[in-house]
């Protein structure tokens, strides 16, 4: 199946700093990617939809100025957590559906563990 | 509000038996329902998709049923193996735009 990678796999940062997480589709093009957040023992929560060539759309309750998303190319989306705080510590996961699919199989990255101290 | 319920308690079964996991939902009319496997510290891995007009889907040792009247999906793993031990998530989408809502998952442990 198709592969989605994330970098870094884990990161520790100090409160107040910004962190960038990359999501890449390695062997297919993705005009749309999704960013999720997962807290321990909780479900994945969709944060935003990343659209190549246009602005991201954010789910209700997600601060767009805090979680900056840039879909720079058909294979790369980045999520920047700005002015990170300890409550932003979580597992961030991206996903990318195959082009032309309608809610069919989608491919998830391995996730990025963010710890804010 | 929309709610997806999966058994939060871990399910322990003996190797070789059939594991059955449940996904119930309320206040929702999904057109698509997916099942994923998630290992600790990893992203989910897609297993099966079933559409609202389908009753059952199979893939190798996996079987999914979808009952829109009962608002329930059942996920079966036959001839279970210790390697099947993981957390299994169900996810629902009503729009066809990949905006899935995920359940909290059920942890399955297959005992050798």
Structure characteristics:
heterodimer; A: 117 residues; mainly beta; 7-stranded mixed sheet; 4-stranded antiparallel sheet; globular; B: 112 residues; 6-stranded mixed sheet; 5-stranded antiparallel sheet; 11 strands
Please sum up the structure shown.
Chain A is mainly β and 117 residues long. Chain A has strands at residues 4-7, 10-13, 19-25, 32-38, 44-51, 57-58, 67-73, 76-81, 90-96, 107-108, 112-116.
Structural notes for this entry:
The complex is a heterodimer of chains A (117) and B (112). Helices cover 0% and strands 50% of the residues of chain A. The mean pLDDT of chain A is 92. Chain A contains no helices and eleven strands. In chain A, the strands form two sheets. In chain A, strands 2, 4, 5, 6, 9, 10 and 11 form a seven-stranded mixed β-sheet that branches. Chain A has a four-stranded antiparallel β-sheet with strand order 1-3-8-7, with no helix packed on it. In chain A, β4 and β5 (44-51) form a beta hairpin. In chain B, 0% of the residues lie in helices and 55% in strands. With 112 residues, chain B is an all-beta fold. Chain B has strands at residues 3-6, 11-14, 19-26, 32-38, 45-51, 56-59, 62-67, 72-77, 86-93, 101-102, 106-111. The chains are: A mainly beta (117), B mainly beta (112). At the A-B interface, β5, β9 and β10 of A face β4, β5, β9 and β10 of B.
Q: In terms of topology, how is this protein built?
A:
The complex is a heterodimer of chains A (117) and B (112).
Chain A: E1 4-7, E2 10-13, E3 19-25, E4 32-38, E5 44-51, E6 57-58, E7 67-73, E8 76-81, E9 90-96, E10 107-108, E11 112-116
Parallel strand pairs in A: 2-11
Antiparallel strand pairs in A: 1-3, 3-8, 4-5, 4-9, 5-6, 7-8, 9-10, 9-11
Chain B: E1 3-6, E2 11-14, E3 19-26, E4 32-38, E5 45-51, E6 56-59, E7 62-67, E8 72-77, E9 86-93, E10 101-102, E11 106-111
